[in-house]
Design brief:
Shape: globular
Oligomer: single chain
Number of helices: 5
Largest sheet: 6 strands, parallel
Structural class: alpha/beta
């Protein structure tokens, strides 16, 4: 069975061959129903929106990965991408059905066709789809930037079961990626303001 290809918003007339780019922005599952339950939703959406604008201005690919399942049924309002992060002409939208954004989506093909060697990872939820996709990116040969203020998880009332509090979970994963060593890969944790899609990042990591 052929993996589904990305849905690409219509490009303007006269669009030519796509340029290659070393870095691509991945926006994972920033859908209405998920943003509604997200920790620091407004701040995370704003950080990712800024990344999208800078990536597009630099000609870097923006890939929006969109979960589809029984709770996020295609065509419903909750399934739609948050309006502040709506795909623009030239962006790629990839439906997925598992936490791993590469599994059965054609993401690897899209990135390799654009000459991408590094993915800038953002989205929801930190411990599930963000983590699964970032690890798969490393296993598939990509360098990874985890955007420290550009991923989030669900709001959880204090003391509700064994889950870590959302702010602790985000901080925990940021710290893991700061110290993660993966042979032959560069792994970085940067705040959104320090990610530069033109090549070369502002000094310092959070």
């Amino acid at each position: 069975m052929t993996a589904p290809v990305g849905r690409r918003p219509e490009a303007g007339p006269g669009a030519g061959a796509e340029p290659t780019a070393a870095s691509a922005l991945l926006v994972i599952d920033m859908q209405n129903a998920l943003v509604a339950i997200a920790h620091r939703a407004s701040a995370t959406v704003a950080a990712i929106a800024g990344l999208q604008a800078r990536a597009r201005a630099a000609g870097a690919p923006v890939v929006v990965v969109q979960q589809e399942d029984e709770e996020l049924e295609p065509g419903t309002e909750g399934w739609r991408i948050a309006p502040e992060l709506a795909p623009a002409p030239g962006d790629t939208v990839l439906p997925k059905t598992a936490p791993d954004g590469f599994l059965g989506t054609g993401l690897d093909t899209v990135l390799r066709s654009r000459g991408v060697s590094e993915v800038v990872v953002s989205g929801f939820a930190t411990e599930i789809c963000v983590e699964s996709t970032a690890r798969q990116a490393l296993s598939r040969g990509y360098d990874v930037v985890l955007v420290s203020d550009g991923h989030t998880t669900s709001v959880r009332p204090d003391g509700s079961g064994p889950y870590a509090a959302p702010e602790a979970s985000v901080a925990h994963h940021n710290e893991i990626y700061r110290n993660l060593r993966f042979p032959g890969r560069r792994v970085r944790v940067l705040p959104a303001a320090e990610v530069d899609f033109r090549g070369g990042d502002a000094p310092g990591t959070p």
